[in-house]
Amino acid sequence: MTILLAKEMRELLRTHRWLILPVLFVVFGISGPALARLLPVLLESAGAGLEIVLPPPSPTDGYAQFLKSTNELGILAVILVFMGIIASERKNGTLAALLVNPVSRLTFVWAKWLVNGAYTLLSFTLGAAFAIVYSYLLLGTPDLAALLEATGLYLSYLLLAFSWTLCLSALVRSPAAAGGLSLIPLFLLPMLGMLWRPLAEYGPYGVVNAATRLVGGMGTPSIAVESPALVSLVLNLLVSVLLVAAAYVALRRAEL
Amino acid sequence: MKAIETRALTRLFGSLCAVDNLTMAVPCGQVYGFLGPNGAGKTTTLKMLAGLISPSSGTALVAGKEMRPGESSRELRSRVGFLAEDPAFYPWMTAYEALVFTARLHGSSAARAGARAAELLDTVGLSPRAEDRIRGFSRGMRQRLGIALALAGEPDVLLLDEPASALDPIGRKEILDLISSLRGRATILMSSHVLDDVQRVGTWVGILDKGRMVVESPLDDLLHRYATPAFHLEISGDRTQVKSALLSRPWVQGVVEEAGGLRIIASDLQEAQRSIASLLAAEHVSLLEFATVVPTLEDVFLRIVSNNDNADDVRAEQITT
Ligand SMILES: Nc1ncnc2c1ncn2[C@@H]1O[C@H](COP(=O)(O)OP(=O)(O)O)[C@@H](O)[C@H]1O
Ligand SMILES: [Mg+2]
Question: Is the pLDDT of residue A133 over 50?
Fold first, then answer.
């Protein structure tokens, strides 16, 4: 196991993939609060003569903007970075070269998940830290508990998105097809949530909705996290693990 | 016990039978040349032996144990080294790292793996490039690294899929010399569609055609069995006249014109050697060269594979009529 973990880590570093997500999330983390701070100023100067009365930005607006960017582009980046995580190895023959050795396919999948999952979550956490610090600097004192809870909730959704991509990458031979399929629930989940309320509360997207509410100042932090969101969080973690198991099942008998 | 064995091994791809009821056995310590034209099913067979794909039916055995994809054959894999037809590597690794990584996967300690890697790099002549990323390696270097990787786990059995076929003559010679030097360290099953390669390093041959084993035997036996008592004759003078004179003799079975002279297929070897001189003297031609034809694997191969084709044609005819 440790040998494969070390290999995944070294691959992450050597291929410079390790830079992509932290840089992206840090950019979101800085631009979120900056935008929230600058938007009223920009609007004012643009509509000089008009009477636009904007409420001053709330200290959590910056983080809300960060979360929005993450949810729109960050997830997309995660899918693009990882759609080939197994499919590419299969396509270019390195998986066959690896598996002729006495290597367990289960260990292979777990090592991929552990290293790259941790990398994804750490990248987002780093971005969130930047968002929080810059909120303090630019927007005043935010409700820290709310922001931390939102971060925690969103991490579970991010892990699910990553695990889902990894699973499809094991199921589908082409990295592009795996990426395409990974995108589908991204659009489907919020839409279906609108049609069927419980899905929006308890389903995978429940944590995202709850996090958005928290940073919109509508939650009551500390006891804040509503129980449906907690259910959603636990489900996300469970389903993530199940997706890794599914990836293994897909690979177990795979022809290489 | 045979080092490598297949029993009624069959593999279908849809309706195509890539390997058809194949039974073969590779005795321990041999360099077995697994010959066959492109598409004969060599790669498919080797992949089944390496546990990368499953047989449709039948079994592939290594060291007497069944090899199958997945967990059940994990231990067995530690005894097998495999070189793919187009070997793939992690391009971001250095040659040294790739070898250490593979040796570690086979259970070596870090120190042991490092020593093994250095030793193998030396064996395949890649020591000067040990610290270079594989990304920049040429085809020949990749092939040599592939063989080193196949050896990294100290396997009893080496499966090499067309190890020399994609290389230029120098690269090819290097690889074949390398394979020769491995004789005795492991049982080697080496596929090839190049007869000359097998003839240079092989001790056993199996000839595969359309997924079926056509002949399997020690190389020398095979050459002997299919040896034709033939001579190559070069003369100055009128060939056609000599040809008809030869054909009238009872010890001549056939005469064909070939590059630079005539090939005589004799029905009586001794009589031919005794009488050829007087025949040429009688025809007033001078002898430039007279040599016994040593059969090559190519001769054998062409005869066997074309026989096989004929057999199919006959069958096809029977069906149509
Ligand atoms: N994955 C595959 N899917 C479909 N057909 C295949 C596959 N692999 C090999 N074949 C077919 O099986 C036959 C044998 O192929 P192969 O084992 O690669 O032959 P060789 O290595 O002797 O050239 C060929 O007709 C080839 O097209
Ligand atoms: Mg082949």
Answer: yes
